[in-house]
Each structure stands twice: as C-alpha cells, then as structure tokens.
Amino acid sequence: MTDHFGSCLCGTVSFELTGDFDSFYLCHCQHCQKDTGSAHAANLFSQSAKLAWRSGADAVTSFTLPGTRHNSS
User: Fold this and answer.
1) Is residue 26 helix, strand or coil?
2) Which of 62, 72, 66, 69 is nearest to 37 (CA)?
3) ∠ at Cα 24 (18, 25), nearest 5°?
4) Is the pTM of this model over 0.90?
5) How far apart are CA 21 and CA 42, in angstroms?
6) Closest Cα partner for 6 from 64, 56, 65, 68?
7) N-to-C CA span, the chain
8) Which is nearest to 43 in space by CA: 69, 66, 67, 61?
9) What is the pLDDT of residues 1-51, one digit of tens each?
10) Alpha-carbon torsion, ordered 43, 46, 52, 54, to 10 deg
11) How far apart are CA 12 and CA 68, in angstroms?
12) Can you name the residues that pair with 29 across neighbouring β-strands?
C-alpha cells in the first residue's frame, strides 16, 4: 500500500490517503470543465483506499448536481 498526502493551497485542509488507485481519468464533460475552470478534470478512483483528514475536515464541503451522479468537493 502507498501513502499519499495532500492539502489545499492555503493549508487549512490536509489529508492522508492510504492505498492504491485503480484508475485515472481526464474527464472533459461540461460539469468537470466548470468545476476546474479548464478543459478537463483529473479524477482518481479507488475501491480500497482509505482517506483520513489530518486537519480542516470541517472546512470541506461537497455538492452533488441534482439529477446526476456528478459530485464536486
């Protein structure tokens, strides 16, 4: 298993992900373009990896677009 660490740009939120990624996709749908303000979004998927918030979990929000499976965090 691999450990991955990350944070937001301001450092309020940090996390640790333990496990491996199953797949990686660059999505070019209009929802992902709006989420990122670019031509695509980079999406990683895993069935087994575990996410642990190291700081700032209360500052994280999530939005699911009604009528779709599109979720943005």
Assistant:
1) strand
2) 72
3) 145
4) no
5) 13
6) 56
7) 25
8) 69
9) 789 999 999 999 999 999 999 999 999 999 999 988 999 999 999 999 999
10) -30
11) 29
12) none
Of 3, 2, 39, residue with least CA distance to 54:
3
Distance CA 55, CA 10 (A): 12
pLDDT reported for residue 70 = 84
What is the model's pLDDT at position 73? 76
Residue range 48-66: mean pLDDT, rounded:
93
| Whole-angstrom distance, CA of residue 5 vs CA of residue 21 | 14
Q: What is the pLDDT of residue 68?
A: 87
CB count within 10 Å of CB 32 equals 19
